[in-house]
Amino acid sequence: MKALDQWPGWQRAVFWNVCAAVGVYIGFATTSEPKVSTNVRVHIAVFTIAFLDLMFLSVRPRLMSEKVAGKATPNPWAVLYRVLVGRPYVIALVMLQLHAVSRATATTIVFMQTANSSYVRELQNAQAMNLRLMLASVLMAMVAILWVFSVIGLWRSRRWAWWLALVLNCVAATVTVALQLIKHDEFLLDPLAIIAVALLLLRPVRAEFRIGGTAVGRAEDALPG
Predict the structure, then answer these.
(1) Which helix (H) or strand (E) holds 93?
(2) What is the DSSP string of 129-151?
C-alpha cells in the first residue's frame, strides 16, 4: 500500500475530508448538554473541516518541502500565517463562501427535519407538505454543493470559480434586496453577499483570476484622473 503522501491529490483530499467529517460528527455526538442549534453546529463543522483541510492540504506540503530542502524544522503556525497573508482577498472570499456553504447546508437539514417532524405528519395535507419540504431540501443541497465548488475553485485560482462565486453572490444579494423592499419591518439584506460581490469586482481580485485581461487594464489606465 502506498504511503499517504504518494496518493493522488484528490484521493488525499477525499480521505482527509472523510476523516475530518467523522471526527466532527463524533465530537458532536459525544458532547454533553446544552445542545446547540443546527445552524451553529453546521457552521462549526464546516469551518472546522475547512481549517483541517488548510492545515493538511496546504500547510503540511509546505512543511514537507522545507524539510526535504534541508531547512530547519519550520513552525507550522508561521507557515500558516504566510499562507493566509499571501492571499488576503482570496482568503476573505473563501471565508464568505464557507459561510454561505454553512447557511445552505443548515437550511437543507432544517427542511429535512421539518419534513419528518410530528407537526407536518399531523397536517391534513401532510403528504404534499412533506414532498415540498423534501424538494426544497434537495434544491438547497444542490445550492450548497455549488457554494462548495466555488470555495475549491477560488482557492485554486480557477477562472470559472470567479464567475460562479459572482453569480451565486449576485443572486443572493438581489433576492435579499427584493425581499427587503417588500418587507420594511425586518432586516433581510445579505450584507456578506454584497461584500463578496464588491471583493470579486476589485481589480486585484480580477487580476488574480485573469478576468478582463489586459484590455480591462488598458481601458482603466486610459481613464482621466
Answers:
(1) helix 88-115
(2) HHHHHHHHHHHHHHHHHHHHHHH
Among candidate residues 181, 36, 169, 37, the one with its CA nearest the CA of residue 94:
169
* Three-state secondary structure call for residue 126: helix
CA-CA distance, 50 to 91, in Å (whole number)? 12
Q: What is the CA radius of gyration of the chain?
A: 21
Which burial class, exposed, middle or buried, applies to 114 when counting CB atoms under 10 A from its CB (0-12, 13-18, 19+)?
A: middle
Answer with the residue of higher pLDDT: 151 or 71.
Answer: 151
Where on the phi/psi map is residue 213: left (φ > 0), alpha (ψ -120 to 50), or beta? left
Q: What is the pLDDT of residue 68?
A: 76
Q: Are 63 and 74 in contact (CB under 8 A)?
A: yes
The average pLDDT across 190-199 equals 95
Cell of 148: 462548495
Describe the crossing of helices 88-115 and 191-200 by its angle, rounded to 10 degrees. 140
Q: What is the pTM assigned to this prediction?
A: 0.85
How many contiguous H segments (helices) and E segments (strands) does the chain have?
11, 0
